[in-house]
Amino acid sequence: MRLVLSNEEQEPAxxxxxxxxxxxxxxxxxxxxxxxxxxxxxxxxxxADIKAQCRCIHLTNDSATLVIDSLKGLCLLNPxxxxxxxxxxxxxxxxxxxxxxNPPQDQVSLISGGGSGHEPAHAGFVGDGMLSAAVCxxxxxxxxxxxxxxxxxxxxxxxxxxxxxxxxxxxxLNFGLASEQYKAAGGTGDVRVLIVGDDVAVGRTQGGIVGRxxxxxxxxxxxxxxxxxxxxxxxxxxxxxxxxxxENTGTIxxxxxxxxxxxxxxxxxxxxxxIHNEPGNQRLKPLPKLSKLIDQMLAMLTSTTxxxxxxxxxxxxxxxxxxxxxxxxxxxSELEMGAIAGEAVSWLKNHNFKTRRVLVGTYMTSLNMPGxxxxxxxxxxxxxxxxxxxxKLLELLDEPTEAPGWKWHSRSELAFADEASASKExxxxxxxxxxxSLRAEDPKAFVEAIKRxxxxxxxxxxxxxxxxxxxxxxxxxxxxxxxxxxxxxAISDGRLTGDNVISSVMTLAQVADERMGxxxxxxxxxxxxxxxxxxxDAASSSSTADLGVWAKTAAAALTTLQKYPLTAFVEALPNxxxxxxxxxxxxxxxxxxxxxxxxxxxxxxxEDLAKANVPDPGAFGVxxxxxxxxxxxxxxx
Length: 637
Fold this sequence. Notes:
This protein is about 40% helix and about 10% strand. The protein is an alpha/beta fold. It has a six-stranded mixed sheet, sandwiched between helices. Strands 7-12-10-11 form a four-stranded mixed sheet. A two-stranded antiparallel ribbon has the order 8-9. Helix 15 runs antiparallel to helix 16. About 45% of the residues are buried.
């Protein structure tokens, strides 16, 4: 299930409008040793009321050729690589090997691979400065030894070949078998295999003889090893450095998944769950705040007291230096990835780790799995004589590469949030104080009316959201709710009273601007700001804001902002509040007959919109607000 990760508390009902992505499950179709797991055309099973918004589609010509079609596409993007698909023997799949067009003969070749579905790993990392070749099995299925041996033949040379693969049984067996077959046949150069197991969720007891699973840390291993190879290092040197990186790397992931096809519920994630939906270490329900989630993940990753999972030799003495890799497992938004990275870096800083590099992006996915993983590479201490120095490993990590899957990262020290943030003195805040004063006729009733209107908006949010999912982009309800919650906070903070309605209306304008945002926030803020200006002018001749003052100033504000339902409300206001509410309700209902001329609703098919017979969500929201102010029943759709 698509889970939004943030530091805001979220009740399941509040999350429903933004649960929009589902993770498919994949079934094997044929003997596993033939590598014939297929990608079925699977659709998610969202709740019926948001089914249209939640559908996730896989686009292919033929599921049986998806892998080779994808590799051919990569070749068009990167002219320095080519794909081998010549073999059409007894195995169901072709070679599916992506390799450099002209692999250097004086550099150790680097090969990786595994089941497809984890892109850009590993085909996206073929290119100068990274892999010489990637061997791609079908979806979540290991390539067979014939494919792998072909890859070694294509890029092997007298300098030798190092194969770096994730620790999964099929990969370990097939890559190991292919390397032994190649050597037995008298192939050129030595071939060695390094199996990477960086997952810290699988304990020593549980891992048994198979060991830990291989995750995104594998990419750091072969990136550094490939950069060293490009410098002309020997196979022994490249292998030793790759082992050094692998032994000092740990990864922990937290995918969410489809509740109908998984052991997880819709509001659950599993700490340490694998990239093929394998069970993890701990189930978390409900979804915790992002800060708490990051704390649990990094605490497990850096622990020195957990005998089962203390794989990386951290000392936690304030002198540990690390590289952080924040990996998107497929369906986390860029917006959330920035927040995740920020929380992880802050945690490391607060726990006295020295973060030397941060890499953030999509490196190793599980198709469209909504989750992420954190990887830490512990760098050697300055006085260490065990392998390459920390400075050398950073230099190799920073080496440029032509591999299209490799993401940009800063090659300098971090600027932390307190240093990178804009100066607080430079913030522009709307001044809500007023030297003029205008008192409400009944200050307590004034505040209660506003509070009542805000609560009515919060109650109506699901209905407004439903309307906007039909007529717009689905955010109108949540936008109005955010504004209403901001208003309630302003009341509880004592910033909104009836003692001076000028300052109170200016506060409402500020809330609309800062809490709502978007078109709605701007419209409300413009109207309220103009209303405050009118109240200021009225204060010169009156000390109390009665109905006549409100009607006159609202009419003046309307000349600044022409909004259909507001027009009806304001024009009827001189005849009394209840009559104005009825006018606003009628105006909102009449928007069902209108064709949208502006906003995102203008892009919606107008015939479908007419058939849906829903009012304009913004107009409906205005009617809810004014009904709340009057203390009468809110409109019904």
